[in-house]
Amino acid sequence: xxxxxxxxxxxxxxxxxxxxxxxxxxxxxxxxxxxxxxxxxxxxxxxxxxxxxxxxxxxxxxxxxxxxxxxxxxxxxxxxxxxxxxxxxxxxxxxxxxxxxxxxxxxxxxxxxxxxxxxxxxxxxxxxxxxxxxxxxxxxxxxxxxxxxxxxxxxxxxxxxxxxxxxxxxxxxxxxxxxxxxxxxxxxxxxxxxxxxxxxxxxxxxxxxxxxxxxxxxxxxxxxxxxxxxxxxxxxxxxxxxxxxxxxxxxxxxxxxxxxxxxxxxxxxxxxxxxxxxxxxxxxxxxxxxxxxxxxxxxxxxxxxxx
Length: 307
What we know:
- The strands form three sheets. Strands 1, 2, 3 and 4 form a four-stranded antiparallel sheet that branches. A three-stranded mixed sheet has the order 7-8-9.
- By secondary structure, the protein is of the alpha+beta class.
- Helix content is 41%, strand content 19%.
- It starts with a strand and ends with a helix.
- The chain folds into three domains: 1-51, Luciferase, Domain 3 (Luciferase, domain 3, Roll), CATH 2.30.38; 58-182, ANL, C-terminal domain (GMP Synthetase, Chain A, domain 3, 2-Layer Sandwich), CATH 3.30.300; 197-306, Non-ribosomal Peptide Synthetase Peptidyl Carrier Protein, Chain A (Orthogonal Bundle).
- The chain is elongated, with a radius of gyration of 29 Å.
């Protein structure tokens, strides 16, 4: 079912909060489906096909990124189903690179929404409990593909950070404020410069879109802060430059400059072969037509001379 806030009602429902009339009015609402009142739990849940209710997290974990309202608990619940994930946590972080503190304070709510990106923190299963398939820590590409198969692109985290454990509050809950920032500089330190013309063009477009100084051919677009809206813009630029049809799915499948350039080179060769074959077919057809015209002209000339 569709995720939504869990409400509780019935004869066992409390009357309200003691000496807190404003909070009581906010949390205890009139039951629109019958008599009595309902209590807004603040929990995010949904119905499963077997009639059971699945708990997804807290409603206050709902965020808005680039115009999309996202339930972080829904992503966490799905990511937790991966066989090699022990526990996980997903948060929305503001991208602060290139902005001063004053500039960030001046950002509107819409601009803040656009500057956020999803970050997933994952504690892998211990090696002895990993699946027979991997027997190792799941890679970022595996986790991203796992979510991409089940969620829309805007709900797939840009970055996956692997930790030995998640920081906890004294109450035993995940301390989201204590989660470390993704190490973008580490990602950029693994820099390998472009070697071909296609790699150079792609890297240049990514640098402009991501607002980073340099992009190596093995750096992952999403781990550098890329997201689906940027991907659409880059996709349009690449199609205009190379004159090729390129889908958004292709961009997800080839998230590095190196892998995308190899894919584009294959498509360019196919396009060239198709055009070459078309040209040869046209040339052969034109030559044949010309020969037929010449033959007809000769026959006409001969018949005229006989007369």
